[in-house]
Design goal:
CATH architecture: 3-Layer(aba) Sandwich
Protein name: Phosphinothricin N-acetyltransferase
CATH superfamily: Gcn5-related N-acetyltransferase (GNAT)
Oligomer: single chain
Strand order of the largest sheet: 1-2-3-4-5-7-6
Number of strands: 7
CATH class: Alpha Beta
CATH topology: Aminopeptidase
Distance between the termini: 21 Å
Number of helices: 4
Order of helices and strands: EHHEEEHEHEE
Pfam family, one: Acetyltransf_4
Number of domains: 1
EC number: 2.3.1.183
Shape: globular
GO molecular function: phosphinothricin N-acetyltransferase activity
Strand content: 25-35%
Largest sheet: 7 strands, mixed
Keywords: Acyltransferase, Transferase
Radius of gyration: 16 Å
Length: 173
């Protein structure tokens, strides 16, 4: 089941996120956020964008969220997205269901573009994003240093809705 996250989901989200922070360069964070920090992130995303969790048997096994792409006003129709699924549930189709719901909700709110920055190499994430229609838009070379080496970040973009609309995105109500 996909549902909107609450700050009470912070500990479960940290449990999913921890291996990404500690063991990979998928996230450029080098320290796992505290429960209060994660709860604040959830609350912030829920104010204007979205943060969803995926539950299986009453256990959170994945989350996806969107946040501000750039703080300047002209970018208000664009958003950056992220998705994390527990290692034990990767490749089961749950992440696809979760991400589809996130993109749908962002479109409903009036966002026109979704961007994803993906540390390379990450063929699973590249394939997931391309399967939703994301297109490659650029590559930041050697932009992040983690685990004793430099990493590239590929940027992908998805058009969520026609550009002709000019009403700003609506907050979650």
């Amino acid at each position: 089941m996909v549902r909107s996250a609450t700050p009470d989901d912070a500990a479960a989200c940290i449990a999913i996120y921890r291996p990404y922070v500690e063991d990979t360069a998928i996230s450029f964070e080098t320290e796992v956020p505290s429960v209060s920090q994660m709860a604040a992130r959830i609350a912030s995303a829920r104010e204007s964008h979205e943060w969803l969790v995926l539950e299986v048997a009453d256990q959170v096994i994945g989350y996806a969220y969107a946040h501000i792409f750039n703080p300047r006003a002209a970018y208000q129709w664009s958003t950056e997205t992220s998705i994390y699924v527990a290692n034990t549930h990767r490749g089961t189709g749950g992440g696809r269901k979760l991400y589809a719901q996130l993109l749908h909700r962002l479109t409903e709110r009036g966002y026109r573009r979704a961007f994803a920055g993906i540390t390379q190499p990450n063929e699973a994430s590249n394939a997931l994003h391309r399967s939703f229609g994301f297109q490659d838009t650029g590559l930041y070379r050697r932009v992040g240093w983690k685990h004793h080496r430099w990493h590239d970040v590929a940027w992908m973009q998805l058009d969520l809705a026609p550009s002709e609309q000019d009403r700003p995105p609506t907050p979650i109500t």
